[in-house]
Amino acid sequence: MLRPQDTLTRERKRLDGLWDFRLDAEAEGRTAGWQDGSLAGATRMPVPASYNDIVPGTQGRDHVGDAWYQTVARVPRGWADQRVVLRFDSATHAATVWLDGQRVVQHEGGYTPFEADVTQLVTPGAEFRVTALVNNELTFQTIPPGIVHDTPHGRRQQYFHDFYNFAGLHRSVWLYATPTTYVDDVTVVTDVDGTTGVVRYDVVAAGPAAGDVSVRVTLRDAAGEVVAQADGASGTLTVPDAHLWAPGDGYLHDAHVTLLDAAGEVVDEYHQSVGIRSVEVRGTQFLVNGEPFYFRGFGKHEDTPVRGKGHDDVFLVHDFALMDWMGANSFRTSHYPYAEEVYDYADRQGIVVIDEVAAVGQNMGLAGGIFGGQNYTTFSPETVDDDAQAAHAQAIRELVARDKNHPSVVLWSIANEPESDTDAARAYFEPLFALARELDPSRPVGFVNVMLAPHGRCQVSELGDVLMLNRYYGWYVHTGDLAAAEDAWRAELEQWAGDGKPIIITEYGADTVAGLHSLTPEPWSEEYQEAYLDMNHRVFDSVDAVVGEHVWNFADFRTSSTSVFRVDGNKKGVFTRDRRPKAAAHLLRRRWTSAG
Ligand code: BDP
């Protein structure tokens, strides 16, 4: 799905700001039809933001169920005879949207965009009312899964992942205009042939005159010089001596996609940025532009004080600056697709991204330990079932459709730490791997393996192009005994290396309270986090197949309030939640900046 743009033929308007807001735990609004008028008894809520931590009290923080958002906006006067679209960059986890009481779109999945053509419902120059009913319930059929329990004290949401179930309108809401015949989709796939850049493209036009327009694609370099041009809805552009996109060098070309009428007049214009690069897995190597790439960086979260998961450009630029300061070259969008601004910025900064679907917590073995699971079977007709698999497939489709053109995205991660050591898991995942490959044959696909499914037991890893491992030797096992942890970790890793695939350590980390010190490293102290990282690095450096290290986590982050495992959230951050460095930040900086 293309992002809204301002171009010669297009205009957009952000509807962000303070919206009217009302929690509706009893789901009264659905029967009373709150979409039909202005929201009675509303308070104000910022968009974008999670609603949970804005107002003190458990009512908002622990809310389960419906939340209503409403705003009134005006259609720009100049948008007559245009196609007008209302777009939500995300609504967590499901939403129904009305325009002046008319239902226009419904969407499930909290981290991907959705939109509605509202041309027939709006009048240029006039006001209109948007009402969004956002629901945050997680069930075994949603991605990610959860269970809602009815209790004498109200409904309670249980979930099996280790980050707070923040909810609301986390990203921008747009009204945008395109011509009635318009560019509906653009796909670019790039490759490198010697010193020549190769850009294959597909353009889909839609609208009443879609059959009568021709397509022209003009590729410009960063200086604005035309370097290639092609006509036709699909084609190939070749760029001799191309300046490639590469890790650390976010060089972007700009493809001007134009629809032309019979007289050669421009009907619509869309700008698609293009980073020319290749990605390939060869043996145990992960190659970008034919060069071995070693991932240095983090698993992150969209998580900041007060805002929760609300996108914020200040933290976007700040977090990237901190990664740059440390010599990090990559991160994983653990455990869901991030705001599109993040990928745009990664493209420009030359930061490599592992892009993850929000399939986290499909593991009742793990849930039993940390999240108080109650002996559920993960994959069964009563739990994660065919409907869940269909939702998972849809989440993969929407992720690839949204992010396929980002050069920064080099690898799809279709799940984090699911159960993977059973026949049921194998049967569940096999079609999902096939789907991801069919949707995007140009990128490797993997999933993130959990410690409970070690080498020899995991039945899903062989479906992936790379091995992604989360391991906590020295933290959850061999706690405090780094010598024993080192032996056990190396032994397991050497087994995985025998599979002949590149291995990325997608998580390793130790909870650390900033400012807690101990001369002889003790778990939770800054010294222990450093010693733990040093131990892990010795192990990684001794195994050739390891092509990446992503520390868990970039920063401390908020978790559910229902577990005694966490004190004020997960403290495995290299930075605190407000982005102050722990000693480990300096250690990683020394390692990564000297890595060349
Ligand atoms: C892994 C999860 C991650 C957790 C982490 C931890 O992938 O989401 O936050 O462990 O326990 O199981 O810190």
Task: Lay out the secondary structure.
Elements: E1 11-14, E2 17-24, H1 28-32, E3 43-47, H2 58-61, E4 66-74, E5 83-88, E6 94-99, E7 102-108, E8 114-117, E9 127-135, E10 146-151, E11 154-159, E12 173-178, E13 182-193, E14 196-206, E15 214-220, E16 226-231, E17 234-239, E18 253-260, E19 266-274, E20 279-282, E21 285-288, E22 291-292, E23 295-299, H3 313-326, E24 330-332, H4 340-349, E25 352-356, H5 364-370, H6 386-403, E26 409-416, H7 423-439, E27 445-449, E28 467-470, H8 482-497, E29 503-507, H9 526-541, E30 546-552, H10 583-593
Parallel strand pairs: 23-24, 23-30, 24-25, 25-26, 26-27, 27-28, 28-29, 29-30
Antiparallel strand pairs: 1-12, 2-3, 2-4, 4-9, 5-8, 5-12, 6-7, 6-9, 10-11, 13-14, 14-17, 15-16, 15-18, 18-19, 20-21, 21-22
Beta-D-glucopyranuronic acid binds near residues 470, 552, 570 and 572.
Walk me through what this model shows.
- Residues 279-593 form the Glycoside hydrolase family 2 catalytic domain.
- InterPro entries: Beta-gal/glucu_dom_sf, Galactose-bd-like_sf, GH, Glyco_hydro_2, Glyco_hydro_2_AS, Glyco_hydro_2_cat, Glyco_hydro_2_CS, Glyco_hydro_2_N.
- Its EC number is 3.2.1.31.
- The protein has 596 residues and is an alpha/beta fold.
- It has three domains: 11-178, Jelly Rolls (Sandwich), CATH 2.60.120.260; 182-277, Immunoglobulins (Immunoglobulin-like), CATH 2.60.40.10; 290-508 and 540-559, TIM Barrel (Alpha-Beta Barrel), CATH 3.20.20.80.
- Helices cover 20% and strands 31% of the residues.
- The protein has helices at 28-32, 58-61, 313-326, 340-349, 364-370, 386-403, 423-439, 482-497, 526-541, 583-593, and strands spanning 11-14, 17-24, 43-47, 66-74, 83-88, 94-99, 102-108, 114-117, 127-135, 146-151, 154-159, 173-178, 182-193, 196-206, 214-220, 226-231, 234-239, 253-260, 266-274, 279-282, 285-288, 291-292, 295-299, 330-332, 352-356, 409-416, 445-449, 467-470, 503-507, 546-552.
- The chain has an eight-stranded parallel barrel with strand order 23-24-25-26-27-28-29-30, surrounded by four helices.
- A hairpin with a 2-residue loop joins strand 20 (279-282) and strand 21.
- The radius of gyration is 24 Å and the shape is globular.
- It starts with 10 loop residues before the first strand and ends with a helix.
- The model has no long low-confidence stretch (mean pLDDT 97).
- The chain binds beta-D-glucopyranuronic acid.
- Residues 162, 335, 416-417, 470, 507, 552, 570, 572 line the site of beta-D-glucopyranuronic acid.
